[in-house]
Design brief:
The complex is a heterodimer.
Chain A (H helix, E strand, L loop, with lengths): L5 E10 L2 E11 L3 E6 L6 H8 L7 E6 L13 E4 L11 H11 L4 H14 L15 H13 L5 E5 L7 H16 L3 E6 L2 H7 L2 E6 L2 E7 H8 L3 E6 L7 H5 L4 E6 L3 E6 L5 H10 L4 E7 L3 H9 L1 H11 L1
Helix pairs in contact in A: 2-3, 2-4, 10-11
Chain B lengths: L1 H15 L2 H25 L6 E7 L6 H10 L12 E7 L5 H9 L15 E5 L1 H6 L3 E4 L5 H22 L4 H8 L9 E2 L2 E2 L4 H35 L3 H7 L2 H32 L1 H8 L3 H5 L8 H28 L3 H27 L4 H6 L6 H11 L4 H29 L9 H9 L1
Parallel strand pairs in B: 1-2, 1-3
Antiparallel strand pairs in B: 3-4, 5-6
Helix pairs in contact in B: 1-10, 2-10, 3-6, 6-7, 8-10, 8-13, 8-14, 8-16, 10-13, 10-17, 13-14, 13-16, 13-17, 14-16, 17-18
The chains are: A alpha/beta, B alpha/beta.
Chain lengths: 316, 438
């Protein structure tokens, strides 16, 4: 494997009053999809801005493709979708994409051809000659997404790429991200939606309060988290299970979803004992499965209840 | 470089495409033409022959010489020009004067189309006229000041001729003696002829100052607004990842400036076209050639044009960079005002310096101001047009301008770098200083 695409070396960034990123280190190897996870305010966007050279770190350094020239020199190799979406409202969609291509150093004619291809691919080609302000928010996001990918960068950095998209459009974007990774290019994206990250990422880093909490390949993170986990699905008489689930000698932790729950077994406890106890009590079960810990469970366990509340608030 | 061109092109194309640009480009020349032509139209005499009925109630037959004098007047200087007046004399006596006069007045002041035998005016000569010079004129065109003055002058000359003739002076001698004086003014500075008439050099100096004043104010503010727009639309973050602040700043100032220059070129071109075709246009608009000549549309000497354009571009970039930096510091247009006022004051001082320069182009004030980069774009072209500027002074002023421009762009780029991503509260002066040093 060649040099890491992105290497953040104990970077600190302070804003007046608080430290947004504190001694943060992470490495994004080239190829594959890297998920930067964390609750709101964890420093995901600040980290990405530091990587993009939009902000300068107070301490530490960011190395891209093994060189510390900064992203602007290497901007032809990097595509960036910022969290704050923004386009020139009065410009025509096609002209805008051509301009974005040109700022990445692509020739005008080439940029035009690529822009048309992308608009077709994203199913918005009939809007090419409309003004940006006439497009819906979701469509504007797709246009900006295309703008970030127009110059076929080897490293694509996406800050919350799926937020604010309906399921159909999110699916289109996800397919494109997966396709980029399949071509051997590198994708780094941030999200606070764990299910998405779990399905897409090869490697992740969870950060909270500006510090890395866990990082590594998804499998590694799950293995390190350890413990035995059980996914439950209830049909009826769930209340009869409450006493068993509250027994800390059997169940270490419960993540209750009402009709379903994810449990972490206590040290030395046996899932079969648990199943027997539940059946004895007459709890109606739809599902009982010994599983890997979900990223969500890991996230909650690592980041803590405080952040989880903030997260839930955001999701609502 | 390619990226700067992309930014310049975007700024230029997007600006030129707007309705506001098209409208202002078309409307200003129309407005200027109206301003130049309307007073001309209002004040000028007519281009058509005026039918004057001369009621002669004098015992000395005054009607004859007066009507001859009027018939001698032409519309314009060209040979073969139409007669200004068509005159018919109606003899009258003391008793029927009122009847004859009122009969003619009844046929006066109608439009040409409806009454073929109508009169434009009735001139009444009596015995008093020769002695006291008093006579009466009744007409539909008495409000036309210029026409009345022309008519009065013609009648005065006729009366003067008659009076001199009565005293035994040869009529030929009278005509010679009465030939009007025709004064031409030419500007002299430092003992040299500038080749411009007095009106022209004033007009040029004023015109240059005004154009610079307007365009810096309008386009400088546009540069500022467009930076604010980029901040509020949050496009800045995408741009900063691929462009340096210097590329963005320079591209923006150049792009907006180019749009401004294009507009100037269109205006300049139309002024040139109008001035070269003004005789033709005058004919179309129904103005007398004489009237339009009274509104000189001066041509600029090539040397002056070069100096003006040089200072125009430098000044434009200088102020453009300042305005862009202010835009980068603020989040809303309202916020910009308290900073922009300083720049506006500079522009105003520069513009008003033009007036004192017009009065005294070689004075100390003008000389000093043409070395201060913020005022030089206004004052130096005016000095150049009104007096002769030593080449060394010009070179020094230009050098200072370029140094100031580089300093300003550098300063603005420093502010830009930090400011464009600052949302929220605007910086204090101390913070600003930190941005510049960082």
């Amino acid at each position: 494997m060649s040099a890491a695409s992105v290497s953040v070396e104990s970077v600190t960034k302070r804003f007046s009053g608080h430290t947004a990123v504190n001694q943060l280190s992470m490495e994004v190897a080239s190829g594959g999809i890297f998920g930067l996870l964390g609750p709101n305010g964890a420093g995901k966007s600040t980290t990405i801005r530091l990587i993009m050279g939009i902000l300068q770190p107070d301490q530490g350094k960011v190395v891209l493709f093994g060189s510390d020239h900064g992203s602007r020199k290497l901007s032809q190799r990097i595509g960036y979708l910022p969290e704050e979406r923004g386009l020139y409202k009065k410009m025509k969609v096609l002209d805008h994409l051509i301009f974005l291509g040109e700022t990445k150093g692509i020739g005008r004619a080439d940029a035009r051809r690529r822009a048309q291809d992308w608009l077709e691919r994203l199913g918005v080609s009939e809007w090419a000659l409309k003004k940006v302000e006439d497009l819906s928010k979701g469509m504007q996001q797709k246009v900006q997404f295309a703008g970030a990918l127009l110059h076929e960068p080897e490293l694509v950095i996406l800050d919350e790429p799926f937020s604010g998209l309906d399921p159909v459009n999110a699916q289109v974007m996800k397919d494109i991200v997966v396709a980029i990774a399949a071509e051997g290019r590198t994708v780094l994206f941030s999200t606070h939606v764990m299910e998405q990250a779990e399905r897409m990422c090869d490697r992740i880093a969870i950060i909270a309060r500006g510090e890395t909490v866990v990082s590594g390949t998804l499998a590694q993170v799950k293995e390190d988290f350890g413990g035995r986990h059980v996914a439950l699905g209830f049909t009826h008489d769930k209340q009869r299970a409450e006493r068993i689930l509250a027994d800390r000698s059997v169940v270490a932790r419960v993540d209750d979803y009402g009709v379903a729950a994810e449990l972490q077994m206590a040290e030395g406890a046996d899932p079969e004992q648990l199943l027997a106890a539940l059946v004895r009590e007459g709890v109606g079960l739809r599902r009982f499965e010994v599983v890997e810990p979900s990223l969500h469970a890991i996230f909650i366990a690592k980041v803590g209840a405080e952040a989880a509340t903030a997260h839930a608030g955001e999701a609502a | 470089m390619k990226k700067i061109i992309a930014v310049v092109r975007r700024e230029f194309v997007e600006r030129v495409r707007t309705k506001a640009f098209v409208i202002s480009t078309v409307m200003l020349p129309v407005f200027i033409v109206l301003m130049a032509v309307l007073p001309g139209l209002m004040m000028s005499g007519t281009d058509h022959t005026t039918r004057v009925a001369v009621v002669d109630a004098s015992s000395s037959g005054l009607g004859q010489p007066v009507s001859q004098a009027l018939q001698g007047e032409k519309l314009g200087d060209k040979p073969g020009a139409k007669a200004r007046y068509e005159v018919q004399v109606f003899p009258a006596t003391g008793q029927d004067l009122v009847a004859v006069r009122d009969g003619l007045i009844a046929k006066t002041g109608f439009s040409r189309d409806t009454h073929a035998d109508r009169w434009d005016g009735v001139l009444v000569l009596t015995d008093h006229t020769l002695a006291s010079g008093k006579l009466a004129y009744y007409g539909g065109n008495v409000g036309a000041v210029q026409s009345m003055r022309t008519l009065q002058r013609a009648v005065s000359q006729a009366l003067a001729g008659v009076r001199l003739g009565k005293s035994g002076v040869d009529p030929a001698l009278v005509r010679q003696a009465m030939a009007p004086a025709d004064m031409q003014t030419t500007k002299v500075s430092d003992g040299k002829l500038t080749g411009q008439s007095g009106t022209e050099s004033f007009f040029i100096a004023y015109f240059m100052g005004f154009i610079l004043y307007i365009s810096i104010l309008v386009y400088g503010q546009q540069t500022m607004t467009s930076v604010i727009e980029e901040k509020t639309s949050r496009i800045m973050e995408v741009l900063t990842s691929s462009l340096t602040p210097f590329q963005m700043l320079l591209g923006k100032v150049l792009g907006v400036g180019l749009a401004g220059l294009t507009q100037m070129a269109i205006w300049g071109g139309s002024v040139f076209l109008i001035s070269s075709q003004r005789m033709h246009l005058a004919g179309m608009l129904g103005m007398s050639a004489e009237a339009i000549q009274r509104f000189p549309i001066p041509s600029m000497a090539p040397g002056l044009l070069v100096v003006f354009l040089l200072y125009f571009i430098l000044g434009f970039l200088l102020y453009g960079a300042l305005y862009a930096a202010i835009g980068a510091m603020c989040n809303t247009i309202q916020e910009t005002q308290q900073y922009a006022i300083f720049v506006t004051v500079f522009i105003m001082v520069g513009f008003f310096a033009v007036f004192s320069l017009i009065k005294d182009p070689t004075g100390n004030l003008g000389t000093t101001m043409s070395f201060i980069p913020f005022f030089a774009p206004f004052t130096m072209p005016v000095r150049w047009s009104l007096s002769s500027v030593p080449p060394l002074q010009l070179a020094m002023s230009l050098a200072l301008m370029v140094i100031a421009l580089l300093a300003c762009v550098w300063l603005a780029a420093r502010i830009y770098r930090t400011g464009i991503l600052m949302y929220g509260k605007k910086p204090s002066w101390r913070e600003l200083w930190r941005w510049i040093r960082a």
